[in-house]
Amino acid sequence: MNLKNFKGKDQALTLLSPAKVNLFFRIHHRRQDQYHQISSLYQAINLSDTISISLAEEDLFHCNLNHLCDLQGNFIWQAVSLFRQKTGWNQKLSIRLQKNIPLQAGLGGGSSNAATTLWALNQLSHYQFEENQLALWAAELGSDMAFFFSQGTAYCQGKGEIIQQITHLPSTHFWLATPQFGLSTTAVYQKCDASKLTHWDSAQALSDTLQGKFILRNDLEPAAFDLKPELRVIKHQLLAMGFTQVSMTGSGTTFICFGSLETLESPGVVFYPVHFLQRKLGYWYQ
């Protein structure tokens, strides 16, 4: 595409790239392909990164975190490469990432960045592929990336790529508690022994949630706690502070905390007040 013919507002986009939480997370078993079979209720939240993409004469990438500026292995540039491969659109791009979502925290920041990038490129290129098609492409990059093409709430199964859209849950405010250290998603899954987990019914958990009965639970907690015993201590401290429910999200290290507390202080833990985030079909998260 000729850069000179790409004018005005079509030259650039700035979009929110939201985090997600797992309101519950069930591990069923390890599959033959070595992935785990899961059932989980995913929810987008208002804690977000910001991605700005504009047309350029050469590929450029800037980030407020210097160690994320390497293009190799970066989820954003993986999404760019995939879009170019699928469409043949090879316009050079300048991309700026303002990173606010904690890293290695179970909040899906990298996956959200990739999905947001695919959405932006679809707009900038004027190709206007259907959202379902973009979700399929996103699933090629990562199991939970397709979720972000839902409307913000979804029951996810398989590896996380089988998505059942859920009617918007009531707007809910809560806290995230993020320790100042991360965990490798791969390491947590490798440590997880599904045969030792207590069975519980994820379908019933979904039914309860849709009736407003939130019961937070995550089968990856034991593996994460084995790798980082400090996490078990932090969870006990959060409950002792007065939170009514505390559960890790994703592969950790962040905890979802339900309860009305005003004074929050725990050494080595950062607290974020958050709420559920939805999007309208045809629009990105706002």
Automatic annotation (TrEMBL):
<keyword id="KW-0547">Nucleotide-binding</keyword>
<keyword id="KW-0418">Kinase</keyword>
<dbReference type="InterPro" id="IPR020568">
    <property type="entry name" value="Ribosomal_Su5_D2-typ_SF"/>
</dbReference>
<dbReference type="Pfam" id="PF00288">
    <property type="entry name" value="GHMP_kinases_N"/>
</dbReference>
<dbReference type="InterPro" id="IPR013750">
    <property type="entry name" value="GHMP_kinase_C_dom"/>
</dbReference>
<dbReference type="Pfam" id="PF08544">
    <property type="entry name" value="GHMP_kinases_C"/>
</dbReference>
<feature type="domain" description="GHMP kinase N-terminal">
    <location>
        <begin position="74"/>
        <end position="150"/>
    </location>
</feature>
<protein>
    <recommendedName>
        <fullName>4-diphosphocytidyl-2-C-methyl-D-erythritol kinase</fullName>
        <ecNumber>2.7.1.148</ecNumber>
    </recommendedName>
</protein>
<dbReference type="InterPro" id="IPR014721">
    <property type="entry name" value="Ribsml_uS5_D2-typ_fold_subgr"/>
</dbReference>
<keyword id="KW-0808">Transferase</keyword>
<dbReference type="GO" id="GO:0050515">
    <property type="term" value="F:4-(cytidine 5'-diphospho)-2-C-methyl-D-erythritol kinase activity"/>
</dbReference>
<dbReference type="InterPro" id="IPR006204">
    <property type="entry name" value="GHMP_kinase_N_dom"/>
</dbReference>
<feature type="active site">
    <location>
        <position position="20"/>
    </location>
</feature>
<keyword id="KW-0414">Isoprene biosynthesis</keyword>
<feature type="binding site">
    <location>
        <begin position="102"/>
        <end position="112"/>
    </location>
    <ligand>
        <name>ATP</name>
    </ligand>
</feature>
<feature type="active site">
    <location>
        <position position="144"/>
    </location>
</feature>
<keyword id="KW-0067">ATP-binding</keyword>
<dbReference type="InterPro" id="IPR036554">
    <property type="entry name" value="GHMP_kinase_C_sf"/>
</dbReference>
<comment type="similarity">
    <text>Belongs to the GHMP kinase family. IspE subfamily.</text>
</comment>
<feature type="domain" description="GHMP kinase C-terminal">
    <location>
        <begin position="217"/>
        <end position="260"/>
    </location>
</feature>
<comment type="function">
    <text>Catalyzes the phosphorylation of the position 2 hydroxy group of 4-diphosphocytidyl-2C-methyl-D-erythritol.</text>
</comment>
<dbReference type="InterPro" id="IPR004424">
    <property type="entry name" value="IspE"/>
</dbReference>
<comment type="pathway">
    <text>Isoprenoid biosynthesis; isopentenyl diphosphate biosynthesis via DXP pathway; isopentenyl diphosphate from 1-deoxy-D-xylulose 5-phosphate: step 3/6.</text>
</comment>
